[in-house]
Amino acid sequence: MNWIAFAFIGAIAQLIDGALGMGFGLTSSSLLITLGASAALASAAVHAAEMCTTLASGLSHWHAENVDKKILLRLAIPGGIGAFLGATFLSFIDLSSSKIFISTLLLFLGFLLLYRNVFKANVQANLIEIKNPAFLSYLGFTGGFVDASGGGGWGPLVTPTLITTTATEPRKVIGTVSAAEFVVAISASVGFLANFNRIDINWATVGGLALGGTLVAPIAARLVGKMPTRALGILVAIAIILLNGVKIIQS
């Protein structure tokens, strides 16, 4: 496949990621692994591309007023630390087999989120991020580590957790998570580049994914701001269930 094909893949993945707060890493790295790339190579290529796509997505969400600045800072910094450590660890050990546990957890969160939006749309959420300041730091660190070590997972882990456990609007959660992912992508890329001699990165793949994702990012950010809150929550839940259900079945 040439860079044009990867640009198309990047555009589709970013449309999903920008609109639902997840999907770029999982979609892109899953394809690369299917084509024969190692988990470390796929993750390195995807995160290098995400330095461009997440910057464009974050700025677009910021301009669309989809970003909560307080949550952003409390997610991004520990997320970056976790991503750097995850990338460094993956450069030595392939952790992709451990994703069955993460997929099971996310599948549960997906059903919980679906139930909340379909049957109990007006229930008062637990404001856990206010009661326990360390919650966001732990969530960010875990999401960053899982994302870098598994080739994707920041959005699917952090987005549903925040929507399920907080009263923050879904569009604000998606915009904030997307903006924080820029720091995660940079940190993961630094971790992989520190072990550059262990990984042979295909820069045509990186360029294609980055180009397609960057061009579509503003469209995706606008899309999320125009969707009804409840419908958006249901779409996110269905996406989580499908993505992780397929992974569990394949495993």
From TrEMBL:
It is a multi-pass membrane protein. The keyword DNA repair does not apply. The chain crosses the membrane at residues 31-59, 71-93, 99-115, 135-154, 174-194, 201-221, 227-246. Pfam families: TauE. Its main location: membrane. GO terms for cellular component: membrane. Keywords: Membrane, Transmembrane, Transmembrane helix. This is Unannotated protein. It is found in: Membrane.
